[in-house]
Specification:
CATH superfamily of chain B: Deoxyuridine triphosphatase (dUTPase)
Number of helices of chain B: 3
CATH class of chain B: Mainly Beta
Oligomer: heterodimer
Number of helices of chain A: 16
Largest sheet of chain B: 9 strands, antiparallel
Order of helices and strands of chain B: HEEEEEEHEEEEEH
Strand order of the largest sheet of chain A: 1-3-2
CATH architecture of chain B: Distorted Sandwich
Helix content of chain A: 55-70%
Chain lengths: 347, 195
Protein backbone atom coordinates (compact mmCIF):
# COMPACT_ATOMS: atom_id res chain seq x y z
CA UNK A 1 0.00 0.00 0.00
CA UNK A 2 1.39 3.40 -0.98
CA UNK A 3 0.07 6.99 -0.81
CA UNK A 4 -0.25 6.97 -4.63
CA UNK A 5 -2.49 3.91 -4.55
CA UNK A 6 -4.68 5.43 -1.85
CA UNK A 7 -4.95 8.59 -3.99
CA UNK A 8 -5.96 6.43 -6.96
CA UNK A 9 -8.65 4.74 -4.89
CA UNK A 10 -9.83 8.10 -3.61
CA UNK A 11 -10.04 9.50 -7.15
CA UNK A 12 -12.15 6.52 -8.19
CA UNK A 13 -14.44 7.17 -5.24
CA UNK A 14 -14.64 10.87 -6.14
CA UNK A 15 -15.88 9.93 -9.61
CA UNK A 16 -18.60 7.72 -8.11
CA UNK A 17 -19.56 10.43 -5.63
CA UNK A 18 -19.84 13.14 -8.31
CA UNK A 19 -22.18 10.86 -10.26
CA UNK A 20 -24.29 10.16 -7.20
CA UNK A 21 -24.72 13.80 -6.20
CA UNK A 22 -27.86 14.14 -8.32
CA UNK A 23 -29.55 11.15 -6.62
CA UNK A 24 -33.00 12.00 -5.31
CA UNK A 25 -34.26 9.81 -2.51
CA UNK A 26 -37.88 9.41 -1.49
CA UNK A 27 -36.64 8.59 2.02
CA UNK A 28 -34.94 11.57 3.71
CA UNK A 29 -32.91 9.22 5.89
CA UNK A 30 -31.03 8.04 2.82
CA UNK A 31 -30.19 11.65 1.90
CA UNK A 32 -28.89 12.24 5.41
CA UNK A 33 -26.71 9.14 5.18
CA UNK A 34 -25.50 10.21 1.73
CA UNK A 35 -24.59 13.68 3.04
CA UNK A 36 -22.53 12.08 5.80
CA UNK A 37 -20.64 9.97 3.26
CA UNK A 38 -19.84 13.15 1.30
CA UNK A 39 -18.51 14.83 4.44
CA UNK A 40 -16.47 11.74 5.27
CA UNK A 41 -15.02 11.75 1.76
CA UNK A 42 -14.05 15.43 2.03
CA UNK A 43 -12.31 14.81 5.35
CA UNK A 44 -10.30 11.90 3.97
CA UNK A 45 -9.54 13.78 0.76
CA UNK A 46 -7.95 16.57 2.78
CA UNK A 47 -5.45 14.24 4.47
CA UNK A 48 -1.76 14.15 3.60
CA UNK A 49 -1.14 10.45 2.95
CA UNK A 50 2.61 10.94 2.44
CA UNK A 51 2.94 11.20 6.20
CA UNK A 52 0.94 8.04 6.94
CA UNK A 53 2.34 4.70 8.02
CA UNK A 54 1.42 1.53 6.11
CA UNK A 55 -1.11 0.52 8.77
CA UNK A 56 -2.69 3.99 8.60
CA UNK A 57 -2.94 3.73 4.82
CA UNK A 58 -4.65 0.35 5.13
CA UNK A 59 -6.99 1.86 7.70
CA UNK A 60 -7.97 4.60 5.22
CA UNK A 61 -8.34 2.05 2.44
CA UNK A 62 -11.02 0.28 4.51
CA UNK A 63 -12.85 3.56 5.07
CA UNK A 64 -12.75 4.41 1.36
CA UNK A 65 -14.13 0.92 0.62
CA UNK A 66 -16.92 1.58 3.10
CA UNK A 67 -17.81 4.81 1.27
CA UNK A 68 -17.74 3.02 -2.08
CA UNK A 69 -20.13 0.32 -0.91
CA UNK A 70 -22.44 2.89 0.67
CA UNK A 71 -22.60 4.84 -2.60
CA UNK A 72 -23.20 1.65 -4.59
CA UNK A 73 -26.22 0.73 -2.46
CA UNK A 74 -27.56 4.29 -2.27
CA UNK A 75 -27.28 4.65 -6.07
CA UNK A 76 -29.44 1.55 -6.46
CA UNK A 77 -31.94 2.73 -3.88
CA UNK A 78 -33.44 5.67 -5.72
CA UNK A 79 -37.12 5.29 -6.52
CA UNK A 80 -36.62 4.53 -10.21
CA UNK A 81 -34.34 1.56 -9.50
CA UNK A 82 -35.39 0.08 -6.16
CA UNK A 83 -38.33 -2.36 -6.14
CA UNK A 84 -40.20 0.06 -3.92
CA UNK A 85 -43.28 -2.05 -3.19
CA UNK A 86 -41.23 -5.10 -2.16
CA UNK A 87 -38.97 -3.04 0.07
CA UNK A 88 -42.08 -1.57 1.70
CA UNK A 89 -43.18 -5.11 2.64
CA UNK A 90 -39.72 -5.85 4.06
CA UNK A 91 -39.81 -2.62 6.08
CA UNK A 92 -43.11 -3.73 7.59
CA UNK A 93 -41.57 -7.08 8.59
CA UNK A 94 -38.49 -5.29 9.95
CA UNK A 95 -40.66 -3.07 12.12
CA UNK A 96 -42.00 -6.19 13.92
CA UNK A 97 -38.46 -6.90 15.06
CA UNK A 98 -36.84 -3.50 15.40
CA UNK A 99 -38.65 -0.28 16.20
CA UNK A 100 -35.58 1.95 16.57
CA UNK A 101 -35.93 3.57 13.10
CA UNK A 102 -32.17 3.11 12.93
CA UNK A 103 -32.05 0.79 9.94
CA UNK A 104 -32.77 1.57 6.29
CA UNK A 105 -33.15 -1.23 3.75
CA UNK A 106 -31.05 -0.56 0.66
CA UNK A 107 -30.66 -2.60 -2.48
CA UNK A 108 -27.99 -3.38 -5.00
CA UNK A 109 -28.77 -5.11 -8.28
CA UNK A 110 -26.52 -7.99 -9.30
CA UNK A 111 -25.94 -9.58 -12.71
CA UNK A 112 -26.00 -13.00 -11.03
CA UNK A 113 -29.40 -14.60 -11.63
CA UNK A 114 -29.21 -16.30 -8.24
CA UNK A 115 -27.58 -13.31 -6.62
CA UNK A 116 -29.69 -12.87 -3.50
CA UNK A 117 -27.66 -12.09 -0.40
CA UNK A 118 -27.34 -10.01 2.72
CA UNK A 119 -24.13 -8.33 3.85
CA UNK A 120 -23.80 -6.96 7.36
CA UNK A 121 -21.04 -4.42 6.72
CA UNK A 122 -23.09 -1.21 6.63
CA UNK A 123 -25.64 -2.29 9.21
CA UNK A 124 -23.83 -4.14 11.97
CA UNK A 125 -20.10 -3.33 11.80
CA UNK A 126 -20.31 -0.66 14.48
CA UNK A 127 -16.53 -0.23 14.55
CA UNK A 128 -16.74 1.83 11.36
CA UNK A 129 -19.31 4.21 12.80
CA UNK A 130 -17.27 4.50 16.01
CA UNK A 131 -14.21 5.51 13.96
CA UNK A 132 -16.19 8.05 11.93
CA UNK A 133 -17.40 9.64 15.15
CA UNK A 134 -14.08 9.56 16.99
CA UNK A 135 -11.68 10.47 14.16
CA UNK A 136 -13.84 12.65 11.91
CA UNK A 137 -16.61 13.91 14.23
CA UNK A 138 -19.25 12.51 11.87
CA UNK A 139 -22.27 10.92 13.52
CA UNK A 140 -24.43 8.57 11.48
CA UNK A 141 -27.96 8.29 12.87
CA UNK A 142 -28.85 5.39 10.60
CA UNK A 143 -27.43 2.11 9.36
CA UNK A 144 -27.96 0.52 5.93
CA UNK A 145 -29.24 -3.04 5.61
CA UNK A 146 -27.60 -4.20 2.38
CA UNK A 147 -29.61 -6.66 0.35
CA UNK A 148 -28.55 -7.69 -3.13
CA UNK A 149 -30.93 -9.14 -5.69
CA UNK A 150 -30.68 -10.09 -9.36
CA UNK A 151 -31.07 -7.17 -11.75
CA UNK A 152 -33.32 -9.12 -14.11
CA UNK A 153 -35.67 -10.13 -11.29
CA UNK A 154 -35.90 -6.76 -9.56
CA UNK A 155 -39.58 -6.37 -10.42
CA UNK A 156 -40.40 -10.08 -10.03
CA UNK A 157 -42.74 -10.47 -7.10
CA UNK A 158 -42.53 -14.26 -7.18
CA UNK A 159 -38.74 -14.52 -7.02
CA UNK A 160 -38.34 -11.76 -4.49
CA UNK A 161 -39.87 -13.77 -1.67
CA UNK A 162 -36.21 -14.69 -1.09
CA UNK A 163 -35.67 -11.19 0.29
CA UNK A 164 -37.64 -12.14 3.41
CA UNK A 165 -35.03 -14.87 3.96
CA UNK A 166 -32.22 -12.32 3.52
CA UNK A 167 -33.91 -10.01 6.03
CA UNK A 168 -33.95 -13.02 8.37
CA UNK A 169 -30.14 -13.11 8.20
CA UNK A 170 -30.06 -9.47 9.29
CA UNK A 171 -32.39 -10.11 12.24
CA UNK A 172 -30.34 -13.14 13.29
CA UNK A 173 -27.08 -11.19 13.22
CA UNK A 174 -28.59 -8.02 14.68
CA UNK A 175 -29.51 -9.95 17.84
CA UNK A 176 -26.77 -12.60 17.64
CA UNK A 177 -29.39 -15.33 17.90
CA UNK A 178 -27.49 -18.20 16.28
CA UNK A 179 -24.21 -17.02 17.80
CA UNK A 180 -25.66 -17.26 21.30
CA UNK A 181 -27.54 -20.48 20.58
CA UNK A 182 -24.37 -22.01 19.19
CA UNK A 183 -22.51 -21.26 22.42
CA UNK A 184 -25.36 -22.65 24.50
CA UNK A 185 -25.74 -25.98 22.71
CA UNK A 186 -22.18 -26.31 21.33
CA UNK A 187 -22.83 -26.37 17.59
CA UNK A 188 -20.03 -27.20 15.18
CA UNK A 189 -19.11 -24.51 12.64
CA UNK A 190 -21.11 -26.18 9.87
CA UNK A 191 -24.11 -26.75 12.16
CA UNK A 192 -23.95 -23.10 13.12
CA UNK A 193 -24.08 -22.02 9.47
CA UNK A 194 -26.96 -24.44 8.84
CA UNK A 195 -28.89 -23.14 11.84
CA UNK A 196 -28.47 -19.61 10.42
CA UNK A 197 -30.10 -20.73 7.18
CA UNK A 198 -32.87 -22.58 9.03
CA UNK A 199 -33.55 -19.48 11.11
CA UNK A 200 -33.86 -17.28 8.02
CA UNK A 201 -36.19 -19.80 6.34
CA UNK A 202 -38.45 -19.86 9.39
CA UNK A 203 -38.27 -16.08 9.70
CA UNK A 204 -39.46 -15.70 6.10
CA UNK A 205 -42.21 -18.28 6.41
CA UNK A 206 -43.74 -16.39 9.34
CA UNK A 207 -44.83 -13.82 6.74
CA UNK A 208 -45.01 -15.56 3.40
CA UNK A 209 -45.79 -19.13 4.41
CA UNK A 210 -44.81 -21.81 1.94
CA UNK A 211 -44.02 -19.23 -0.74
CA UNK A 212 -40.44 -19.24 0.54
CA UNK A 213 -40.25 -22.98 -0.09
CA UNK A 214 -41.53 -22.67 -3.64
CA UNK A 215 -38.72 -20.45 -4.82
CA UNK A 216 -36.15 -22.27 -2.70
CA UNK A 217 -37.10 -25.47 -4.46
CA UNK A 218 -36.77 -23.71 -7.79
CA UNK A 219 -33.29 -22.23 -7.23
CA UNK A 220 -31.76 -24.93 -5.01
CA UNK A 221 -33.51 -27.99 -6.54
CA UNK A 222 -32.67 -31.11 -4.53
CA UNK A 223 -29.32 -29.80 -3.23
CA UNK A 224 -27.77 -32.03 -0.56
CA UNK A 225 -26.12 -30.76 2.64
CA UNK A 226 -23.14 -28.52 1.90
CA UNK A 227 -20.82 -26.43 4.05
CA UNK A 228 -22.83 -23.29 3.32
CA UNK A 229 -26.40 -24.62 3.32
CA UNK A 230 -28.43 -27.50 4.71
CA UNK A 231 -30.08 -29.76 2.15
CA UNK A 232 -33.06 -28.26 0.32
CA UNK A 233 -35.32 -31.05 1.54
CA UNK A 234 -34.43 -30.52 5.19
CA UNK A 235 -35.10 -26.78 4.82
CA UNK A 236 -38.47 -27.33 3.17
CA UNK A 237 -39.36 -29.97 5.75
CA UNK A 238 -38.57 -27.64 8.66
CA UNK A 239 -40.69 -24.81 7.22
CA UNK A 240 -43.60 -27.22 6.76
CA UNK A 241 -43.30 -28.37 10.36
CA UNK A 242 -43.24 -24.76 11.54
CA UNK A 243 -46.32 -23.81 9.52
CA UNK A 244 -48.19 -26.93 10.59
CA UNK A 245 -47.39 -26.40 14.28
CA UNK A 246 -45.32 -29.58 14.57
CA UNK A 247 -42.32 -29.98 16.84
CA UNK A 248 -38.73 -30.62 15.83
CA UNK A 249 -35.54 -30.34 17.91
CA UNK A 250 -33.97 -27.71 15.61
CA UNK A 251 -37.22 -25.76 15.41
CA UNK A 252 -37.65 -25.85 19.18
CA UNK A 253 -34.10 -24.57 19.68
CA UNK A 254 -34.67 -21.71 17.23
CA UNK A 255 -38.01 -20.67 18.73
CA UNK A 256 -36.74 -20.88 22.26
CA UNK A 257 -33.50 -18.97 21.59
CA UNK A 258 -35.27 -16.29 19.55
CA UNK A 259 -37.76 -15.57 22.30
CA UNK A 260 -35.13 -15.54 25.05
CA UNK A 261 -32.80 -13.24 23.12
CA UNK A 262 -35.22 -10.86 21.39
CA UNK A 263 -38.36 -11.11 23.51
CA UNK A 264 -40.23 -11.75 20.26
CA UNK A 265 -41.79 -14.96 19.04
CA UNK A 266 -41.11 -16.88 15.88
CA UNK A 267 -44.74 -17.55 14.97
CA UNK A 268 -47.06 -17.82 12.02
CA UNK A 269 -47.98 -14.16 11.45
CA UNK A 270 -50.04 -14.68 8.33
CA UNK A 271 -53.59 -13.64 7.75
CA UNK A 272 -54.41 -15.49 4.59
CA UNK A 273 -56.58 -13.69 2.08
CA UNK A 274 -58.68 -15.14 -0.72
CA UNK A 275 -57.43 -15.28 -4.28
CA UNK A 276 -60.84 -14.50 -5.86
CA UNK A 277 -59.81 -10.97 -6.83
CA UNK A 278 -56.70 -12.13 -8.66
CA UNK A 279 -58.76 -14.74 -10.48
CA UNK A 280 -61.09 -11.93 -11.57
CA UNK A 281 -58.09 -9.85 -12.79
CA UNK A 282 -58.28 -7.22 -10.06
CA UNK A 283 -55.86 -6.24 -7.28
CA UNK A 284 -56.87 -7.21 -3.75
CA UNK A 285 -57.93 -4.66 -1.18
CA UNK A 286 -55.44 -5.29 1.62
CA UNK A 287 -56.51 -4.02 5.04
CA UNK A 288 -53.63 -5.00 7.35
CA UNK A 289 -49.89 -5.65 7.36
CA UNK A 290 -50.51 -9.36 7.95
CA UNK A 291 -52.62 -9.50 4.80
CA UNK A 292 -49.97 -7.52 2.94
CA UNK A 293 -47.39 -10.29 3.27
CA UNK A 294 -49.96 -12.90 2.18
CA UNK A 295 -49.96 -11.42 -1.32
CA UNK A 296 -46.81 -13.39 -2.08
CA UNK A 297 -48.45 -16.68 -1.15
CA UNK A 298 -51.46 -15.91 -3.34
CA UNK A 299 -49.23 -15.07 -6.29
CA UNK A 300 -47.28 -18.30 -5.94
CA UNK A 301 -50.39 -20.45 -5.47
CA UNK A 302 -51.95 -19.07 -8.64
CA UNK A 303 -48.74 -19.48 -10.60
CA UNK A 304 -48.22 -23.09 -9.50
CA UNK A 305 -51.75 -24.30 -10.14
CA UNK A 306 -53.94 -24.52 -13.24
CA UNK A 307 -55.90 -21.32 -13.63
CA UNK A 308 -58.94 -21.89 -15.86
CA UNK A 309 -60.10 -18.31 -15.24
CA UNK A 310 -57.03 -17.25 -17.28
CA UNK A 311 -56.62 -20.11 -19.75
CA UNK A 312 -60.30 -19.91 -20.76
CA UNK A 313 -59.61 -16.33 -21.82
CA UNK A 314 -56.70 -17.36 -24.05
CA UNK A 315 -54.14 -15.94 -21.63
CA UNK A 316 -50.80 -17.66 -22.25
CA UNK A 317 -48.07 -18.40 -19.72
CA UNK A 318 -46.12 -15.19 -20.26
CA UNK A 319 -49.23 -13.04 -19.87
CA UNK A 320 -50.23 -15.05 -16.80
CA UNK A 321 -46.80 -14.27 -15.31
CA UNK A 322 -47.13 -10.60 -16.26
CA UNK A 323 -50.67 -10.28 -14.88
CA UNK A 324 -49.93 -12.03 -11.56
CA UNK A 325 -46.91 -9.76 -11.03
CA UNK A 326 -48.94 -6.67 -11.94
CA UNK A 327 -51.75 -7.59 -9.55
CA UNK A 328 -49.27 -8.24 -6.72
CA UNK A 329 -47.57 -4.90 -7.33
CA UNK A 330 -50.83 -2.97 -7.57
CA UNK A 331 -52.29 -4.62 -4.44
CA UNK A 332 -49.23 -3.54 -2.44
CA UNK A 333 -49.04 -0.04 -3.94
CA UNK A 334 -52.77 0.55 -3.34
CA UNK A 335 -52.29 -0.39 0.32
CA UNK A 336 -49.40 2.10 0.56
CA UNK A 337 -51.38 4.89 -1.13
CA UNK A 338 -54.58 4.35 0.87
CA UNK A 339 -52.66 4.26 4.17
CA UNK A 340 -50.89 7.51 3.35
CA UNK A 341 -54.10 9.15 2.19
CA UNK A 342 -56.07 8.10 5.27
CA UNK A 343 -53.39 9.52 7.58
CA UNK A 344 -53.88 12.98 6.08
CA UNK A 345 -57.57 13.07 5.28
CA UNK A 346 -60.02 13.70 8.11
CA UNK A 347 -62.89 11.19 8.20
CA UNK B 1 -76.46 6.59 -23.42
CA UNK B 2 -74.47 8.66 -20.91
CA UNK B 3 -74.60 7.45 -17.34
CA UNK B 4 -75.48 9.81 -14.53
CA UNK B 5 -73.69 10.04 -11.20
CA UNK B 6 -76.26 7.79 -9.54
CA UNK B 7 -75.97 5.16 -12.27
CA UNK B 8 -72.17 5.16 -12.04
CA UNK B 9 -72.38 4.93 -8.25
CA UNK B 10 -74.84 2.05 -8.49
CA UNK B 11 -72.46 0.13 -10.75
CA UNK B 12 -69.60 0.80 -8.33
CA UNK B 13 -71.51 -0.17 -5.22
CA UNK B 14 -72.86 -3.37 -6.80
CA UNK B 15 -69.29 -4.44 -7.64
CA UNK B 16 -69.94 -4.48 -11.40
CA UNK B 17 -67.56 -1.56 -11.78
CA UNK B 18 -64.28 -1.94 -9.90
CA UNK B 19 -62.17 1.13 -9.04
CA UNK B 20 -59.15 0.51 -6.78
CA UNK B 21 -58.21 2.64 -5.02
CA UNK B 22 -61.06 5.12 -4.88
CA UNK B 23 -59.62 7.70 -2.49
CA UNK B 24 -62.69 9.93 -2.36
CA UNK B 25 -66.33 9.65 -3.38
CA UNK B 26 -65.93 13.31 -4.31
CA UNK B 27 -64.41 11.97 -7.54
CA UNK B 28 -67.95 11.21 -8.78
CA UNK B 29 -69.30 14.22 -10.68
CA UNK B 30 -72.77 14.81 -12.14
CA UNK B 31 -71.98 12.54 -15.10
CA UNK B 32 -68.25 11.93 -14.79
CA UNK B 33 -65.65 10.28 -12.61
CA UNK B 34 -62.42 12.16 -11.89
CA UNK B 35 -59.25 10.12 -12.24
CA UNK B 36 -55.88 10.67 -10.61
CA UNK B 37 -52.38 10.87 -12.05
CA UNK B 38 -50.53 7.64 -11.20
CA UNK B 39 -46.99 7.13 -9.95
CA UNK B 40 -45.15 5.58 -12.92
CA UNK B 41 -44.06 7.41 -16.06
CA UNK B 42 -42.42 6.79 -19.41
CA UNK B 43 -40.89 10.07 -20.52
CA UNK B 44 -40.00 10.55 -24.19
CA UNK B 45 -36.52 11.76 -25.03
CA UNK B 46 -34.47 12.26 -28.18
CA UNK B 47 -31.97 9.44 -28.54
CA UNK B 48 -29.56 8.29 -31.23
CA UNK B 49 -32.25 7.45 -33.79
CA UNK B 50 -33.73 10.45 -35.63
CA UNK B 51 -37.30 9.12 -35.63
CA UNK B 52 -39.65 6.52 -34.17
CA UNK B 53 -40.37 3.86 -36.74
CA UNK B 54 -44.00 2.72 -36.48
CA UNK B 55 -44.08 0.82 -39.79
CA UNK B 56 -43.60 -2.65 -38.36
CA UNK B 57 -40.05 -3.00 -39.77
CA UNK B 58 -38.30 -5.64 -37.72
CA UNK B 59 -34.94 -3.90 -37.85
CA UNK B 60 -36.18 -0.68 -36.33
CA UNK B 61 -35.23 0.37 -32.84
CA UNK B 62 -37.86 -0.70 -30.24
CA UNK B 63 -40.31 2.09 -29.48
CA UNK B 64 -39.74 1.57 -25.74
CA UNK B 65 -36.14 2.74 -26.22
CA UNK B 66 -37.43 6.26 -26.96
CA UNK B 67 -38.83 6.50 -23.44
CA UNK B 68 -37.19 6.61 -20.04
CA UNK B 69 -38.88 5.05 -17.03
CA UNK B 70 -39.30 7.14 -13.89
CA UNK B 71 -41.35 6.87 -10.75
CA UNK B 72 -42.77 9.19 -8.11
CA UNK B 73 -44.58 8.70 -4.84
CA UNK B 74 -48.10 10.01 -4.46
CA UNK B 75 -47.86 13.69 -3.48
CA UNK B 76 -44.53 14.23 -5.27
CA UNK B 77 -44.28 16.26 -8.47
CA UNK B 78 -43.28 15.76 -12.08
CA UNK B 79 -42.51 18.17 -14.91
CA UNK B 80 -44.14 18.04 -18.30
CA UNK B 81 -42.00 19.97 -20.77
CA UNK B 82 -43.46 21.82 -23.79
CA UNK B 83 -44.58 19.42 -26.54
CA UNK B 84 -43.15 16.43 -24.69
CA UNK B 85 -45.15 13.21 -24.61
CA UNK B 86 -45.27 11.43 -21.30
CA UNK B 87 -46.96 8.07 -20.89
CA UNK B 88 -48.46 7.39 -17.51
CA UNK B 89 -51.29 5.49 -15.89
CA UNK B 90 -54.26 6.40 -13.80
CA UNK B 91 -53.74 5.79 -10.11
CA UNK B 92 -56.98 3.81 -10.18
CA UNK B 93 -57.17 0.24 -11.43
CA UNK B 94 -60.43 -0.46 -13.24
CA UNK B 95 -62.56 -3.37 -14.23
CA UNK B 96 -65.22 -2.11 -16.58
CA UNK B 97 -68.52 -3.97 -17.13
CA UNK B 98 -68.85 -5.68 -20.52
CA UNK B 99 -71.56 -3.26 -21.67
CA UNK B 100 -69.92 0.00 -20.60
CA UNK B 101 -67.21 2.00 -22.31
CA UNK B 102 -65.47 5.17 -21.20
CA UNK B 103 -64.20 8.26 -22.91
CA UNK B 104 -61.40 10.14 -21.21
CA UNK B 105 -60.56 13.82 -21.39
CA UNK B 106 -58.51 16.27 -19.37
CA UNK B 107 -60.43 18.07 -16.66
CA UNK B 108 -61.24 21.62 -17.64
CA UNK B 109 -58.68 23.11 -15.22
CA UNK B 110 -55.91 21.07 -16.81
CA UNK B 111 -57.11 21.56 -20.41
CA UNK B 112 -56.67 25.27 -19.80
CA UNK B 113 -53.01 24.64 -19.01
CA UNK B 114 -52.53 23.05 -22.41
CA UNK B 115 -52.75 19.39 -21.48
CA UNK B 116 -54.53 17.24 -23.98
CA UNK B 117 -55.77 13.70 -23.44
CA UNK B 118 -58.33 11.94 -25.56
CA UNK B 119 -58.85 8.25 -25.28
CA UNK B 120 -61.48 5.55 -24.95
CA UNK B 121 -61.55 2.52 -22.66
CA UNK B 122 -63.10 -0.61 -24.07
CA UNK B 123 -65.93 -2.53 -22.40
CA UNK B 124 -64.60 -5.28 -20.14
CA UNK B 125 -61.12 -3.71 -19.83
CA UNK B 126 -59.18 -4.37 -16.63
CA UNK B 127 -56.11 -2.43 -15.58
CA UNK B 128 -54.93 1.07 -14.90
CA UNK B 129 -55.91 3.44 -17.67
CA UNK B 130 -53.17 4.42 -20.05
CA UNK B 131 -52.72 8.17 -20.32
CA UNK B 132 -50.73 9.84 -23.08
CA UNK B 133 -50.10 13.33 -21.79
CA UNK B 134 -48.82 16.07 -24.07
CA UNK B 135 -48.10 19.57 -22.90
CA UNK B 136 -49.21 21.95 -25.64
CA UNK B 137 -48.24 24.96 -23.58
CA UNK B 138 -45.04 26.87 -24.32
CA UNK B 139 -44.16 26.68 -20.64
CA UNK B 140 -43.20 23.59 -18.71
CA UNK B 141 -45.90 22.33 -16.35
CA UNK B 142 -45.32 20.93 -12.90
CA UNK B 143 -47.94 18.38 -11.88
CA UNK B 144 -48.71 16.77 -8.55
CA UNK B 145 -48.88 12.96 -8.58
CA UNK B 146 -52.29 11.83 -7.37
CA UNK B 147 -54.03 15.00 -8.60
CA UNK B 148 -57.35 14.43 -10.37
CA UNK B 149 -56.29 15.59 -13.82
CA UNK B 150 -58.77 13.83 -16.06
CA UNK B 151 -62.34 12.68 -16.17
CA UNK B 152 -64.17 9.70 -17.58
CA UNK B 153 -67.65 9.65 -19.07
CA UNK B 154 -69.55 6.37 -19.05
CA UNK B 155 -71.65 5.06 -21.94
CA UNK B 156 -73.90 2.02 -21.83
CA UNK B 157 -74.11 -0.33 -24.83
CA UNK B 158 -77.15 -2.41 -25.68
CA UNK B 159 -75.12 -5.63 -25.84
CA UNK B 160 -72.13 -7.02 -23.99
CA UNK B 161 -68.69 -7.02 -25.61
CA UNK B 162 -66.25 -9.85 -24.87
CA UNK B 163 -63.01 -8.00 -24.11
CA UNK B 164 -60.99 -11.20 -23.84
CA UNK B 165 -62.47 -12.62 -27.04
CA UNK B 166 -59.20 -11.72 -28.77
CA UNK B 167 -55.62 -11.59 -27.46
CA UNK B 168 -55.09 -8.33 -25.55
CA UNK B 169 -51.77 -6.47 -25.51
CA UNK B 170 -52.52 -4.07 -22.70
CA UNK B 171 -54.82 -6.03 -20.33
CA UNK B 172 -54.19 -5.70 -16.58
CA UNK B 173 -51.35 -3.22 -17.00
CA UNK B 174 -50.46 -1.25 -13.90
CA UNK B 175 -47.62 0.80 -15.36
CA UNK B 176 -47.47 2.74 -18.60
CA UNK B 177 -46.48 0.61 -21.56
CA UNK B 178 -44.87 2.01 -24.70
CA UNK B 179 -46.79 1.54 -27.93
CA UNK B 180 -46.79 -2.01 -29.29
CA UNK B 181 -47.89 -0.85 -32.71
CA UNK B 182 -45.06 -2.76 -34.38
CA UNK B 183 -46.54 -6.05 -33.26
CA UNK B 184 -49.71 -5.41 -35.30
CA UNK B 185 -49.96 -8.33 -37.72
CA UNK B 186 -51.60 -6.15 -40.36
CA UNK B 187 -48.42 -4.10 -40.77
CA UNK B 188 -46.70 -7.24 -42.10
CA UNK B 189 -49.42 -7.66 -44.73
CA UNK B 190 -49.21 -4.01 -45.75
CA UNK B 191 -45.45 -4.29 -46.14
CA UNK B 192 -45.83 -7.26 -48.47
CA UNK B 193 -48.12 -5.23 -50.75
CA UNK B 194 -45.14 -3.24 -52.03
CA UNK B 195 -42.50 -5.98 -52.06
Amino acid sequence: MSPELIRLHLSQLKKAIIKSETNKYADNRKQEYHDNILTLFERIDSLDFSKCSISELIHYKYIIDFCFISIEFLDNSILTVIPHEIVYCLEKALSDWDDTNKYIIVISLSNDLNGFWFNSMLSLKEIYYDIFKADFSIFFKHRLIQITLPKYLSQDYLANVVLYHELGHFIDQRYGIIEKLSSAISLTNIEKIHYGEFFSDIFASQYIGEASNYYLHYIAHEAPDSESHPSTNSRIDLVEKFLNGKTDPILDHLKDATFKITGKELKDRRKIIKDDDFKAFIPTNIVSDEELHSIFEIGWRLWKNPLPEYSDKHIGEFDKYRIINSLMEKSISNYMVVNKWNKHVPH
Amino acid sequence: MYLTKQEILDLYKSGELIIRPLLSEGQFGAMTLDLRLGTDFLVSFQGREPYIDATGDTECRPIASFFQETKRLIGETIFLHPHQTVLCSSLEYFKIPNNIFLTLSARSSYSRLGISITSIVQPGYCGCLSLELTNNNNNALKLRVGAAILQARFYRLEKDVDYFGVARKYACQVRPVASKVNSDKELEILKKLVE
